Amino acid sequence: MRVFLMVVPLQARQRVPARERAMHYRDAEVWKRSMALAEQACRLADGLPAAERFGLRSQISRAAVSVPSNIAEGWSRESRREKAQFMAIAQGSLSELHTQLLLCERLGWLDPGALRLPYGLIDETSRMLTTLRRKMRTG
């Protein structure tokens, strides 16, 4: 009979204090901002050329939905390490979305004026995620 022992670093097992878990993800400002961004991005994607239905339109929608989804999933995790990991994934999706919107602007598919609000939400959400991730690392 073989017995496998898995060694998990103390930091990985560290639980998030109850006071930090008390707030529901829907009450978190970062989640609210990311939802507003997802709405804006999906509406903008709908205005892209029909030929982009399975290209950039689809990618923009997926990246936009990924941000609040990963924030929500991370918020529900027990350990700080897991929470930080999902916030990092949300940050990556945010960068992906920003890149896709910039490309649409460069191609002339989206008006720069229509992108002011989404770009502002991207900046705000990014700052909030960075702050959250720092807090999770330092405890």
From TrEMBL:
NCBIfam families: four helix bundle protein. CDD domains: 23S_rRNA_IVP_like. InterPro entries: 23S_rRNA-intervening_sequence, 23S_rRNA_IVS_sf. It holds the Pfam family 23S_rRNA_IVP. This is Four helix bundle protein. The lineage of its organism: Bacteria, Pseudomonadati, Pseudomonadota, Gammaproteobacteria, Lysobacterales.
